[in-house]
Each structure stands twice: as structure tokens, then as C-alpha cells.
């Protein structure tokens, strides 16, 4: 369990504070930001530092410029958006070297409470290799480092791990602190019963999550396409449903070891074609030849709800069906609305389940929606996240 210093544990007044944010926002072809959630998420830490008299130097990556300047992946539009949201100009330090002459001069001219945004850190090829040269350049700008980018916490890059080894103390921002608290408590000291819900397409991509969570949870609900490999392990036919034959033995082993801890669907919405408008019906048990399961059926929804009703902590990763198609979204939506009304800590662990919960308009009814898909998966796998591990202990 992480016990890291946070922004509130250190004196920031008059200090030059380098803040690693996650401004990896989607842009349309005209360079307009199409989803500002990540910018909004970064505001509490930035505002705290401004209000407490720090000189706030923001940095982030965006997309994959692969180590060279790419104007279409410049962070300039983010500076504009931030300025509007903060009601104060955020000066964009345009600089192909990220920490070149213009960035240095812009930082040198800062007053307490000012905010500067550096250019995309991945303009520098050293960034994703965590090479010391770029880490030193970034660190030379500041007296204090704050990491608030959970989305990249599972990577060791210059702008999170590299700078943390040079600037001391290196502390957590509010976003990272919240992720550590919710995901960490859920996995390491949950209020029980703890129920995990796993779904999505593949067993193979979630093996480590299944193994780690089985050690911790009271019940593990498995839905979505990954359930059919477990069906096969139970000796059921799966028709043309998603199936990973190489993992049937693994699924058998999990079922033997976990006993009734694993809860599987008991019925399935099937169709002959992967098409929202294809006729569908519900079957229990075997899935007939030529048919594929695209959602959990009504009895499974009722069974899963029964397991969830007493839960005090729920962690959810992966949809129960092909929720992108409205006719196969019912299982996912029903679970989302059940969680929204549950008197429990509900944590949505990144990726497609976040999209599903937001699509159902229930995002603000959950206790916590993780901001990092890959990072939250690695957290649930029980792996150490280098971007957090590198921060200074309390
Ligand atoms: P993942 O990235 O592994 O969490 O998988 C998410 C994807 O799984 C979504 O795009 C869903 O459409 C897909 N999915 C969920 N259930 C099924 C299913 N029964 N058959 C095919 N794809 C599914």
C-alpha cells in the first residue's frame, strides 16, 4: 500500500513546482479538444498550487509524436482551455525542445501564482526511455515535483519517474491521491463483502487481474465475452461466441480453485450475426451451433444483482456484453444502474466500463471512476506502479 507525501504535506509558497498532468486529450482534425474530462480532472491540484502562491509549471504528453515535434500534437490548445477554466492566462511555453530557451525564459519570468504549460514531453525521444538527460532538464526548472498523471503511472518515463529521482520531495497531486485511496483500499483493506465484476472480451488480457482479485474478493462475477471460455471449461457449447481455446484449461483450474467464489452467467442473449439489428433470443446453458452470445440474459442479471446487493465494495472492469450496440447493452446498463443505487463504495476500473457507465449517464453516481485504463488494470493486478512508487514516502 502506498503512503506518499501529497501536495498538502509540503510548503509550496514561492516554489517553482513542476506538475506532471495527464493532458492526453482527444483532438478533432481542426485541433479542437473533443473531451475535456482530463483537463477538468487536473484543476483541483493546479488551483491549490496557484492559491497557495506556487509558480506552477505544467507538463504532459499527448498522443505519440515518437520523439519529435509534431505540430498537430502540440499542447497549445490545452493552454487555451486551461486559461478559460482557471480564469487566468496559462502561458504556453512553445518550445520544440520542451525545455529549450523559450521554456527557460518563460519560467524565469514567472511570478507566484502564475501557471505555465510546457510543450508535449514526448516531443523528446528520451521521455519514454526515462533517460537521465531529459529528466535533468525538466528537473532544472523546479524546486518541487508533483505527479498527478495516473494514466501514465504504470510507465517509467522522464516526466514522472526520472524527475522524481532528482527533485525531492516528489509528491502526489489530488488525482493520484484519490486513485491510491480508492483502488488501494478496495484491493488491500476493503470494507467487505468485496465483489469484483470482470467483463470485456478476453480472459487472456485479464489473467493477472483474475488471479490477484481471486485472492482478495468475496465474489468474482464474470460476464462479457470472456465468460464463454469459462462456459467451455464447464463443458458447455459456445457456438460462434468469443472463445480462447488456449485458456480453457486455465479457466478450469480457476473454477476448481475458486469454487463458488466465481459467479458466471446462467443465460445468454444470442444471435446469428454480429449486428445490432439481427434477431436475438435468450438461452440457458449451452449456446447452439452457429449462434454467438452478445450479452448476459435476464436470469444472469438477476443473479448478479443478488450477489451485489449486500456488497460494501465493488470494483468493476469490463462490460457484460457488446454495450456499444443498443440491443446488447442491457446487461451492462442494468449492472451500472444497480451499482449507481448501491449503498457501497463503487469503483469503475478504467477502460470500456467507464465508457459504459458514462453512456448510461451514471458516471456521477459512482464513488470513483478511475482515470487510467492501463494503470488501474496494473493496480488491480497487484503490480507496483513506477510513477507512484517513485514518489517520496510520508
Ligand atoms: P476489454 O477491452 O477486454 O474490456 O473488452 C471490451 C470489449 O468487449 C467491448 O468492446 C465489448 O463490445 C466487448 N464484448 C463484451 N462482451 C462481448 C461479447 N459477448 N462478445 C463480443 N465482444 C464482447
Structural class: alpha/beta
Q: Judging from the principal axes of the Cα atoms, what is the shape?
A: elongated
Q: State the total count of DSSP E strands.
A: 15
Number of helices: 14
Task: Bin the helical content.
Answer: 25-40%
Order of helices and strands: EHEHEHEHEHEHEHEHHEEEEHEHEHEHH
Radius of gyration: 23 Å
Q: Into which percentage range does the β-strand content fall? A: 15-25%
Q: Which kinds of small molecule does this entry bind, naming each only once?
A: adenosine monophosphate
Q: Oligomer, anyone?
A: single chain
The low-pLDDT segments are none
Separation, N- and C-terminal Cα atoms: 12 Å
> Strands across the major sheet, in which order?
3-4-2-1-5-6
Biggest β-sheet: count, sense, barrel? Answer: 6 strands, parallel
What's the mean pLDDT score? Answer: 96
Kindly describe this structure.
- The protein has helices at 37-51, 76-86, 101-108, 132-139, 158-166, 174-188, 207-216, 227-233, 248-258, 298-308, 330-341, 352-359, 373-380, 386-389; strands at residues 16-20, 55-59, 90-93, 115-118, 144-147, 170-172, 194-198, 219-222, 262-263, 267-271, 280-284, 292-296, 313-317, 345-348, 368-369.
- By secondary structure, it is of the alpha/beta class.
- It has a six-stranded parallel β-sheet with strand order 3-4-2-1-5-6, with helices on both faces.
- Helix 8 packs across helix 9 and helix 10 packs parallel to helix 11.
- The longest helix is centred in the N-terminal third of the chain and has 15 residues, at 37-51.
- Bound molecules: adenosine monophosphate.
- The site of adenosine monophosphate has 17 residues, from strand 12.
Amino acid at each position: 500500500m502506498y503512503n506518499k507525501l501529497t501536495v498538502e504535506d509540503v510548503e509550496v509558497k514561492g516554489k517553482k513546482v513542476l506538475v506532471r498532468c495527464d493532458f492526453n486529450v482527444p483532438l478533432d482534425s481542426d485541433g479542437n479538444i473533443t473531451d475535456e474530462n482530463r483537463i477538468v480532472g487536473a484543476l483541483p491540484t493546479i488551483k491549490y498550487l496557484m492559491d497557495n502562491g506556487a509558480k506552477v509549471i505544467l507538463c504532459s504528453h499527448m498522443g505519440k509524436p515518437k520523439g519529435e515535434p509534431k505540430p498537430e500534437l502540440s499542447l497549445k490548445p490545452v493552454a487555451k482551455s486551461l486559461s478559460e477554466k482557471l480564469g487566468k492566462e496559462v502561458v504556453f511555453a512553445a518550445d520544440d525542445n520542451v525545455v529549450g530557451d523559450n521554456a527557460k525564459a518563460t519560467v524565469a519570468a514567472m511570478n507566484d501564482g502564475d501557471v505555465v504549460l510546457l510543450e508535449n514531453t514526448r516531443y523528446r525521444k528520451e521521455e519514454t526511455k526515462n533517460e537521465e538527460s531529459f529528466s535533468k532538464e525538466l528537473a532544472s526548472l523546479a524546486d518541487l515535483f508533483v505527479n498527478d498523471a495516473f494514466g501514465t503511472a504504470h510507465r517509467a518515463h522522464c516526466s514522472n519517474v526520472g524527475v522524481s529521482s532528482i527533485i525531492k520531495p516528489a509528491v502526489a497531486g489530488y488525482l493520484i491521491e484519490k486513485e491510491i485511496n480508492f483502488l488501494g483500499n478496495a484491493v488491500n483493506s476493503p470494507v467487505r463483502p468485496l465483489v469484483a465484476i470482470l467483463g470485456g472480451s478476453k480472459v487472456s488480457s485479464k489473467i493477472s487481474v483474475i488471479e490477484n482479485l481471486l485472492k482478495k474478493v468475496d465474489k468474482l462475477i464474470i460476464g462479457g465475452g470472456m465468460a464463454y471460455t469459462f462456459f467451455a471449461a464447464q463443458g458447455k457449447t459456445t457456438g460462434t461466441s468469443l472463445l480462447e481455446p488456449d485458456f480453457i484449461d486455465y479457466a478450469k483450474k480457476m473454477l476448481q480453485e475458486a469454487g463458488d467464489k466465481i459467479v458466471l452467467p446462467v443465460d445468454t442473449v444470442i444471435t446469428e450475426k454480429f449486428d445490432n439489428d439481427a434477431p436475438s433470443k435468450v438461452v440457458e446453458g449451452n449456446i447452439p451451433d452457429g449462434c454467438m452470445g452478445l450479452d448476459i440474459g435476464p436470469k444472469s442479471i438477476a443473479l448478479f444483482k443478488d450477489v451485489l446487493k449486500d456488497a460494501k465494495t465493488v470494483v468493476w472492469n469490463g462490460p457484460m456484453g457488446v454495450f456499444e450496440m443498443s440491443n446488447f447493452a442491457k446487461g451492462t446498463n442494468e449492472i451500472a444502474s444497480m451499482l449507481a443505487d448501491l449503498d457501497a463504495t463503487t469503483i469503475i476500473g478504467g477502460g470500456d466500463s467507464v465508457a459504459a457507465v458514462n453512456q448510461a449517464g451514471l458516471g456521477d453516481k459512482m464513488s470513483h471512476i478511475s482515470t487510467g485504463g492501463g494503470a488501474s488494470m496494473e493496480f488491480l493486478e497487484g503490480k507496483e506502479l513506477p510513477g507512484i512508487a517513485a514518489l517520496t514516502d510520508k
